[in-house]
What we know:
The structure holds 2 protein chains of 2 kinds.
Chain A: H1 8-29, H2 36-56, H3 64-90
Chain B: H1 9-12, H2 26-61, H3 63-70, H4 75-100, H5 104-134, H6 157-196, H7 206-231
Amino acid sequence: MAEHVTSRKVYFLVFAALLALTLATVLVAEVDLGVFNDVAALTIAVTKALLVLLFFMHVRHSTRMTALTAVAGFFWLALLIGLTMADYASRGQILPYVAGK
Amino acid sequence: MASSPLVDPHATQAHHRALAHQFDSLDQQKESSTLGMWLFLVTEIMFFGGLFTAYVIYRTLYPQAFALASHTLNVPLGGANTAILIGSSLTMVLAIWAAQVNWRKGIALFLLATIALGATFLGIKSVEYREKFETHHVPGPSFHFVPESEHVKVTDPQLERHASIFFSLYFIMTGLHALHMIIGIGILAVLTVLAWKGKYDSEYHNPLEMTGLYWHFVDIVWIFLFPLLYLLGAHAR
């Protein structure tokens, strides 16, 4: 079984897409979209990260075990940030007097 | 390369010089390296993840101070560095491609290009750091922050304290990222010498693949750092 050789053309296309998305994130930040500025910035960043993961890091052609390991890493990161923010967001709501209000 | 469990490939057939004793085949060896490298990268995700969590917490608590402090960062330099880092990821992946097509000099050349782009990134970063020291935006005894905004002109001690949290996170996150790049450049330098000596070919180039995984991961960290640190609320300038 030989490893998959990706053609240079694919790499150059991914590179061009990453540059275009970088320009897009700079331009969209200049427009006031309220909370959607953050949504747009993170959507673009996640798209760029996926391009790097799938094409440059060859996760596209990796085994399921490797892909699962990568997904697990980002899943635990989501737990870390998600549950921490759930804590901060709900403080003082269950026991208002604890927060000194 | 099918091998019967009763036959030791190391004893019976001619095998690649890079095949280690504990593996049946180069494929299995690569599989093992890749999984091990990804386990390391998962610890790196959690390592940087703690800092990203701290950022999310403090930005939620002090959105105005974070937006004002973010405005003092140099977007053109940060943007240029993003492009440079993406370019270095391209040359890294092309070094692996060169190995796959057995172009040995190409491997070394693309690795050198990756080192050059990484060094350029660090050079630009040092210019940005110098600017921060000159404007007293480095948290510490001489820290001083007056926002560049029409709305707020007077020095506000509370705002200043919150802005120093932003700059602390900025220096820790970008500093740790830069440290990863310095280590990466060191590894790339060793690989360049080994590639020049002809250690890697289409059959075996695991060290290139594994270093590539590390380098691209560091690229991904920056892909998130750039919008979060430089661009948040840029429109409010």
